[in-house]
């Protein structure tokens, strides 16, 4: 990152990684500006970040999570509704965001799940958010490292072509409905576990992560998220299934995480073009409101 920009940047972490404290300490030593978390971090981890000068920004999917991290000293929170891709809940953004804003106090709130244009930005601001976060929309840009063939596959899908499934790693994830997901949903429990174990072996060989660390991470997941042993084993699916689809360019045998907003996206602009367009659209909407127009 430092070879590409002299501007401040943030790093995203999973709060349940066994070595998350070491990762946070690395960010502090390197004077990274923002630590964002895919799961709400513990109180002691937030304090460690804050003491080290990091801005802390957890992702949340429920009002009670917002209340908790705000009380612990988080600087900002990303609030993702059920429309969002990947791990997500079932409450839509339009209901979750105002709840979160009321619960967050003075900290920054970013809405996520279903946003792709300036109209969505204005709606989030109307609910009290300070801005929006977008996953699927940035994935589908010219700058995204996702394989071109996979991007084109995404563009062929509509808003009804996603499914919220438990069969990837045992917790809800929104992905594109396809052959792999259909097979996982129809498969028997022993078959899913055997496939997951095979993926665990493949991931270990590719990443060279010691088995001791993989097992420790699984135990942490079981303890922190109340997962069953079968769900822990299934969690080995995710890295390989996503890599196969998004980086290796094989969506036919992998998994494509996506928000429902995928059905409203039909182009692949650069990130610069996308941001400029969203801002222009939002300004146009606000100006029409001022004129009393539609």
Describe what this molecule looks like in 3D.
The chain is built from 13 helices and 9 strands. The protein has a domain at 158-257. Helix 9 packs across helix 12. The longest helix is centred in the C-terminal third of the chain and has 21 residues, at 271-291. The chain has a 6-stranded parallel beta sheet. It is globular and about 60 Å long. The chain is an alpha/beta fold.
Strand content bin: 5-15%
Number of helical segments with 4 or more residues: 13
- Count the strands? 9
How confident is the prediction overall: mean pLDDT?
A: 87
Which sheet architecture does the biggest sheet show? 6 strands, parallel
- Oligomerization status of the protein chains: single chain
Q: Could you give the distance between the termini?
A: 43 Å
Order of helices and strands: EHEHEHEEHEHEHHEEHHHHHH
- The assigned structural class equals alpha/beta
The gyration radius over C-alpha positions equals 20 Å
Strand order of the largest sheet: 1-2-3-4-6-7
Q: Give the proportion of residues in helices.
A: 40-55%
Instruction: Give start-end ranges of low-pLDDT stretches.
Output: none
Silhouette: globular
Blueprint (SSEs and pairs):
Blueprint: E1 10-13, H1 20-29, E2 34-37, H2 43-51, E3 55-60, H3 63-71, E4 76-80, E5 86-87, H4 93-104, E6 108-112, H5 118-126, E7 131-133, H6 136-139, H7 148-155, E8 162-165, E9 173-176, H8 179-186, H9 189-207, H10 211-225, H11 229-234, H12 237-246, H13 271-291
Parallel strand pairs: 1-2, 2-3, 3-4, 4-6, 6-7
Antiparallel strand pairs: 5-9, 8-9
